[in-house]
Amino acid sequence: MTRRKKIYEGKAKILYEGPEPGTLIQYFKDDTTAFDATKKAVLEGKGVINNRISEYIMTRLTGIGVQNHFIKRMNLREQLIKEVEIIPLEVICRNIAAGSLATRLGIPEGQPLPRSIIEFCLKDDKLHDPLVTEEHITAFNWASTQEIDDMMAITLRINDYLTGLFAGVGITLVDFKVEFGRIYENDFPRTILADEISPDSCRLWDSVTNEKLDKDRFRRDLGN
What we know:
Layout: E1 6-9, E2 13-17, E3 23-28, E4 31-34, E5 39-42, H1 46-63, E6 70-73, E7 78-82, E8 85-86, E9 89-96, H2 99-105, E10 112-122, E11 131-132, H3 134-139, H4 145-167, E12 171-185, E13 188-194, E14 202-206, H5 216-219
Antiparallel strand pairs: 1-2, 2-3, 3-7, 4-5, 6-7, 8-12, 9-10, 9-12, 10-11, 12-13, 12-14
Protein backbone atom coordinates (compact mmCIF):
# COMPACT_ATOMS: atom_id res chain seq x y z
CA MET A 1 0.00 0.00 0.00
CA THR A 2 1.42 3.39 -1.00
CA ARG A 3 1.88 5.77 1.90
CA ARG A 4 -0.07 8.95 1.32
CA LYS A 5 1.75 12.27 1.48
CA LYS A 6 0.69 14.40 4.45
CA ILE A 7 0.09 18.01 3.39
CA TYR A 8 -0.95 19.56 6.71
CA GLU A 9 -1.91 18.53 10.22
CA GLY A 10 -4.06 20.71 12.44
CA LYS A 11 -5.60 20.25 15.86
CA ALA A 12 -8.61 18.25 14.65
CA LYS A 13 -7.85 17.18 11.07
CA ILE A 14 -5.10 15.96 8.76
CA LEU A 15 -4.93 16.77 5.04
CA TYR A 16 -3.37 14.24 2.67
CA GLU A 17 -2.59 14.43 -1.02
CA GLY A 18 -5.66 13.44 -3.02
CA PRO A 19 -6.00 10.80 -5.74
CA GLU A 20 -6.42 13.42 -8.49
CA PRO A 21 -4.80 16.83 -9.07
CA GLY A 22 -6.73 19.56 -7.28
CA THR A 23 -8.06 17.20 -4.59
CA LEU A 24 -7.14 16.41 -0.99
CA ILE A 25 -8.22 13.82 1.56
CA GLN A 26 -9.42 15.32 4.85
CA TYR A 27 -9.06 13.01 7.87
CA PHE A 28 -11.01 13.76 11.06
CA LYS A 29 -9.11 13.01 14.27
CA ASP A 30 -10.51 12.19 17.72
CA ASP A 31 -8.22 14.82 19.25
CA THR A 32 -10.05 17.61 21.04
CA THR A 33 -8.45 20.88 22.07
CA ALA A 34 -9.47 24.16 23.70
CA PHE A 35 -7.84 27.44 24.67
CA ASP A 36 -5.34 27.35 21.78
CA ALA A 37 -4.54 23.67 22.47
CA THR A 38 -3.50 24.25 26.09
CA LYS A 39 -6.30 21.83 27.02
CA LYS A 40 -6.24 18.51 25.14
CA ALA A 41 -8.04 15.18 25.18
CA VAL A 42 -8.91 12.28 22.90
CA LEU A 43 -12.66 11.60 22.63
CA GLU A 44 -13.14 8.22 21.00
CA GLY A 45 -15.38 8.42 17.94
CA LYS A 46 -15.49 12.21 17.78
CA GLY A 47 -13.82 12.29 14.35
CA VAL A 48 -16.35 9.83 12.93
CA ILE A 49 -19.29 11.93 14.15
CA ASN A 50 -17.80 15.22 12.94
CA ASN A 51 -17.12 13.67 9.54
CA ARG A 52 -20.75 12.64 9.17
CA ILE A 53 -22.20 15.91 10.49
CA SER A 54 -19.96 18.00 8.24
CA GLU A 55 -20.83 15.80 5.24
CA TYR A 56 -24.55 16.23 5.98
CA ILE A 57 -24.34 20.02 6.27
CA MET A 58 -21.98 20.57 3.33
CA THR A 59 -24.17 18.41 1.07
CA ARG A 60 -27.26 20.41 1.98
CA LEU A 61 -25.47 23.72 1.52
CA THR A 62 -24.46 22.57 -1.96
CA GLY A 63 -28.15 21.94 -2.57
CA ILE A 64 -29.01 25.59 -1.90
CA GLY A 65 -26.15 26.89 -4.04
CA VAL A 66 -23.45 27.49 -1.40
CA GLN A 67 -20.26 26.36 -3.10
CA ASN A 68 -17.88 24.45 -0.83
CA HIS A 69 -14.86 22.16 -0.97
CA PHE A 70 -16.72 18.90 -0.15
CA ILE A 71 -16.79 16.26 -2.91
CA LYS A 72 -17.75 13.03 -1.12
CA ARG A 73 -17.26 11.04 2.08
CA MET A 74 -14.80 8.22 1.51
CA ASN A 75 -15.14 6.24 4.75
CA LEU A 76 -15.89 6.75 8.44
CA ARG A 77 -13.15 9.33 8.96
CA GLU A 78 -12.23 10.72 5.56
CA GLN A 79 -13.64 13.07 2.95
CA LEU A 80 -12.49 13.82 -0.56
CA ILE A 81 -12.33 17.60 -0.92
CA LYS A 82 -11.25 20.22 -3.43
CA GLU A 83 -7.82 21.71 -2.85
CA VAL A 84 -8.23 25.42 -2.14
CA GLU A 85 -5.96 28.33 -1.28
CA ILE A 86 -7.06 29.01 2.29
CA ILE A 87 -7.83 32.62 3.20
CA PRO A 88 -6.08 33.10 6.61
CA LEU A 89 -9.21 34.26 8.41
CA GLU A 90 -11.84 32.76 10.66
CA VAL A 91 -15.30 34.19 10.01
CA ILE A 92 -17.57 34.07 13.07
CA CYS A 93 -21.32 34.61 12.91
CA ARG A 94 -23.04 35.35 16.22
CA ASN A 95 -26.78 35.27 16.94
CA ILE A 96 -26.73 35.14 20.76
CA ALA A 97 -24.15 36.54 23.19
CA ALA A 98 -21.73 33.81 24.33
CA GLY A 99 -18.03 33.09 24.67
CA SER A 100 -15.55 35.87 23.95
CA LEU A 101 -18.22 38.34 22.75
CA ALA A 102 -20.05 38.18 26.08
CA THR A 103 -16.76 38.59 27.97
CA ARG A 104 -15.42 41.37 25.74
CA LEU A 105 -18.56 43.53 25.75
CA GLY A 106 -19.96 42.63 29.15
CA ILE A 107 -23.18 41.22 27.71
CA PRO A 108 -24.93 38.45 29.69
CA GLU A 109 -24.43 35.04 28.07
CA GLY A 110 -27.64 33.95 26.37
CA GLN A 111 -28.86 37.45 25.47
CA PRO A 112 -30.10 37.56 21.86
CA LEU A 113 -28.20 40.07 19.73
CA PRO A 114 -30.06 42.89 17.93
CA ARG A 115 -29.03 41.22 14.65
CA SER A 116 -26.55 38.60 13.52
CA ILE A 117 -23.00 39.92 13.89
CA ILE A 118 -20.04 38.83 11.76
CA GLU A 119 -16.50 39.06 13.11
CA PHE A 120 -13.14 38.27 11.50
CA CYS A 121 -10.16 36.74 13.30
CA LEU A 122 -6.67 36.14 11.94
CA LYS A 123 -5.87 32.41 11.84
CA ASP A 124 -2.80 32.29 14.07
CA ASP A 125 -2.72 30.13 17.21
CA LYS A 126 0.46 31.77 18.47
CA LEU A 127 -1.35 35.11 18.53
CA HIS A 128 -4.56 33.49 19.88
CA ASP A 129 -6.52 34.22 16.67
CA PRO A 130 -6.86 37.99 17.24
CA LEU A 131 -9.94 39.91 16.17
CA VAL A 132 -9.25 41.99 13.03
CA THR A 133 -11.18 44.60 11.08
CA GLU A 134 -11.82 44.92 7.35
CA GLU A 135 -9.19 47.67 7.36
CA HIS A 136 -6.56 45.21 8.66
CA ILE A 137 -7.64 42.56 6.16
CA THR A 138 -7.26 44.80 3.11
CA ALA A 139 -4.13 46.60 4.40
CA PHE A 140 -2.26 43.32 4.87
CA ASN A 141 -3.76 41.80 1.73
CA TRP A 142 -5.27 38.77 3.52
CA ALA A 143 -8.37 39.19 1.34
CA SER A 144 -9.77 41.69 -1.14
CA THR A 145 -12.82 43.89 -0.54
CA GLN A 146 -14.76 41.66 -2.95
CA GLU A 147 -13.71 38.54 -1.03
CA ILE A 148 -14.78 40.18 2.25
CA ASP A 149 -18.20 40.95 0.73
CA ASP A 150 -18.46 37.38 -0.59
CA MET A 151 -17.50 35.83 2.76
CA MET A 152 -20.02 37.95 4.64
CA ALA A 153 -22.84 37.22 2.20
CA ILE A 154 -22.13 33.46 2.17
CA THR A 155 -21.83 33.37 5.98
CA LEU A 156 -25.21 35.07 6.43
CA ARG A 157 -26.78 32.64 3.97
CA ILE A 158 -25.28 29.71 5.87
CA ASN A 159 -26.59 31.23 9.11
CA ASP A 160 -30.14 31.48 7.74
CA TYR A 161 -30.06 27.88 6.57
CA LEU A 162 -28.45 26.37 9.68
CA THR A 163 -30.71 28.32 12.04
CA GLY A 164 -33.75 26.68 10.43
CA LEU A 165 -32.09 23.28 10.15
CA PHE A 166 -31.20 23.13 13.84
CA ALA A 167 -34.47 24.72 15.00
CA GLY A 168 -36.27 21.84 13.30
CA VAL A 169 -34.69 19.42 15.80
CA GLY A 170 -35.00 21.63 18.87
CA ILE A 171 -31.53 23.18 18.79
CA THR A 172 -30.60 26.88 18.88
CA LEU A 173 -27.66 28.00 16.74
CA VAL A 174 -25.87 30.43 19.06
CA ASP A 175 -22.84 31.10 16.86
CA PHE A 176 -20.49 29.34 14.44
CA LYS A 177 -17.11 29.69 12.78
CA VAL A 178 -16.36 29.05 9.11
CA GLU A 179 -13.31 29.32 6.89
CA PHE A 180 -13.03 30.07 3.21
CA GLY A 181 -10.66 29.32 0.36
CA ARG A 182 -10.00 30.39 -3.20
CA ILE A 183 -10.32 28.23 -6.26
CA TYR A 184 -9.22 29.54 -9.63
CA GLU A 185 -11.38 29.35 -12.74
CA ASN A 186 -9.55 30.68 -15.81
CA ASP A 187 -7.19 32.55 -13.45
CA PHE A 188 -10.17 34.22 -11.78
CA PRO A 189 -10.42 33.51 -8.02
CA ARG A 190 -13.73 32.32 -6.59
CA THR A 191 -14.42 32.27 -2.84
CA ILE A 192 -15.85 29.00 -1.51
CA LEU A 193 -16.60 27.51 1.91
CA ALA A 194 -13.86 25.20 3.25
CA ASP A 195 -12.78 23.39 6.45
CA GLU A 196 -15.78 21.86 8.31
CA ILE A 197 -19.06 22.65 10.03
CA SER A 198 -19.54 20.52 13.14
CA PRO A 199 -20.03 20.83 16.92
CA ASP A 200 -16.32 21.73 17.02
CA SER A 201 -17.08 24.96 15.17
CA CYS A 202 -20.63 25.80 16.37
CA ARG A 203 -22.30 26.70 19.66
CA LEU A 204 -25.48 24.65 19.84
CA TRP A 205 -27.93 24.84 22.75
CA ASP A 206 -31.05 22.84 23.53
CA SER A 207 -33.88 25.21 22.58
CA VAL A 208 -35.90 24.43 25.73
CA THR A 209 -33.27 24.01 28.46
CA ASN A 210 -30.29 25.90 26.94
CA GLU A 211 -28.15 22.85 27.70
CA LYS A 212 -24.88 23.10 25.79
CA LEU A 213 -24.51 20.49 23.03
CA ASP A 214 -21.15 21.52 21.61
CA LYS A 215 -17.44 21.92 22.34
CA ASP A 216 -18.22 24.10 25.39
CA ARG A 217 -18.95 20.83 27.20
CA PHE A 218 -15.24 20.07 26.88
CA ARG A 219 -14.06 23.65 27.49
CA ARG A 220 -16.08 23.91 30.71
CA ASP A 221 -15.78 20.30 31.94
CA LEU A 222 -19.54 19.69 31.71
CA GLY A 223 -19.17 15.97 30.94
CA ASN A 224 -21.11 13.76 28.49
